[in-house]
Model the fold of this input.
Amino acid sequence: MKARKPVVVGFGVALVLGLALLGSRLSAARPSAALESAGPDREIDRVRSLFPQTEGWFRIVATAEFSTGPSGRIVPDYSTLTHQRVRWSDASGHTIAAQFAPTFRNATRILSGEDQDAWIDVLPEHGQNVEAELQDGLVVYGDAYRDTDVLYKSTPTHTDEYLLLRTPDAPTRWTYRVRMGPRIARLRQGGSAVEAVDARGVPWMRANAPFAVDQEGTRVDGRIRIEGERLIAEIDTSGLTYPVLVDPDWRSTGDMSHGRFYMGLNELPDGRLLATGGCSASICSGDLSLPACRTVVSAGEALDLDTRTWSRVGDANLRAFFHVHSPLPDGSILIAGGCANPDCSAITLLSDIWDVSMNAFRSVPDLTTAQAGMVSAILPGGRVLAAGGCDFASCSTDAAAFDPDSETWSALAPMNSPRGRSAVTVLSDGRVLAAGGCTTILCDATLASAEVYDPALDQWDPVGDMSTVRGGHWSSRLLDGRVLIGGGCSDQSCTNVLASAEIFDPRTGEFTSTGAQVQPRVGAVAVALPDGSVMVNQGCSSPTECDLSNERWDPATGEFSLIEQAVTVRAFHSTVLHAGSEQVVAVGGCQPGTCSWWNETYDVSNIMRVDAGAPEDAGPRPPDAGARDGGSIDAGAIGVDGGLTPPTEGDCGCNTPGRVRPAGGGALTLLALGLLFVRRR
Done:
């Protein structure tokens, strides 16, 4: 069966990912001169004046030119975009094309660049029959609704719809009639999002609920829902001061719907990866303080490695980061506790289960103590340990276990030292090591101490200290039962990022030094590989410097060496070794100046050391026009030079630094998620 690539549409417009495949079908004629708008009273100037942050957003498309198609619709020419933040494809390399309605009460058609039967007509109801104008690269419908201007910003990877509500008389509920092409079977509600899926249930496009902001920066979230063949979007702006800017958010399904970090990531029994919670940031520090978190995420979404698509699976009752996320014996996922607001001044007691039999979240009894950044591990018999953790002012020694049979929490023996954000490792005999960590959730001080929980005795035993205090560090159990620990910072501001590593021996209860990392790292993640080595995935070397490098620790030599680099910079992310495919999957994360909804996979079947001195690439560039020909790619031939550009814009409004070409030709083949088997079936 021919491969599919996902399409994404917005309220009245698509998430546009490309135009090359449509060019032969469109007239080269320029739009009528009447479309070109100039003068001091333009809608785009009104929005920029009221909401200065849009200046940077709009600048991305300032050079855009347009043509008129045979149907009279207006088509952007993305080859005329010159801004360095333009993405030329989504994380899966997909393209679609858009034809904008010449008047607001006509439908905008969205076409897939890979399948002409995958299209959607989106028609806003109850709008005015106003003509489109082109204003500095945006398509604008002035007075599209009462006291409302509608503007569209379209790039090869994203089209935002902005609704400027000028007065309280402007509508706050919008209805869109949707007509679907033969390839799109239905609309599906996924929590607070709506997805358009094919007959196999594979999502081609996703609409997140709109949000609104006023000039003071106050934000409220709205809703989107399905009513028959219509989409209903609505938002309560009663707590905002007018004028208000509303931004419906549409995404392709090759990316997560939220850039997030300090999140949960767990493999489900069917092989999908479930992402829960997390913080979605506008900026992210490379130290142990909490970054500027825009919103705390409740949305659950699952990554299907076969189709390379994310699906929204529902919204948890728990909205948190630094939360417990642990598999239960039946494959369900327990999530509990964590920071409930962006600065972590509120901690939650809530607990939820993603129930694999229901394919839904459901509530279970609350934690006994509200904490974030807890020591969490699976105990023998399937119980889940949740110990320690912190609130805004201090950390706790309290410990409890969740029993999946009775679905209750019960108290355990307390820890010896209050701690949170520790490195936690389950030992071969079922005991649990908690090493280092912080004395508050903001990591005002870091720890060198370590202790081991013995579930048979319900007892915490102190063990030898690490060689240095560590926070933001990583750990991984070795095949011989010892534990490798490394990196992190010695203080909250990370004035000293650590390259050192050490090994804990459960037989002696002591730490001994091993070879140091090639470079210091905080916010990195370690993954034990099948051959007994340990991959250390990315992180930051200072509060302002994060890069694409990865390292591998060799148990035979006790030394680290660089391995093939990543596609996009990330730290404080989640990384798992996928059991079914022997791929390391890195998801989410952030770093100074950016956040990531991107995902990457690493084929670990044949890892080789690479030259650390390889030259850097010049940075983002348009994709190779032939890289996606025929809708499929030879996975074994792709590194980061396959024409894929790192993400440079998203729900966090962030900018990803230029990518670096992988050093040498190492056989650790890094694959941007979605480029591995772009064929969907």
Notes: The chain has a mean pLDDT of 82. The chain has two domains: 8-251, 264-672. Residues 35 and 133 are 4 Å apart (CA to CA). Helices lie at 43-50, 54-59.
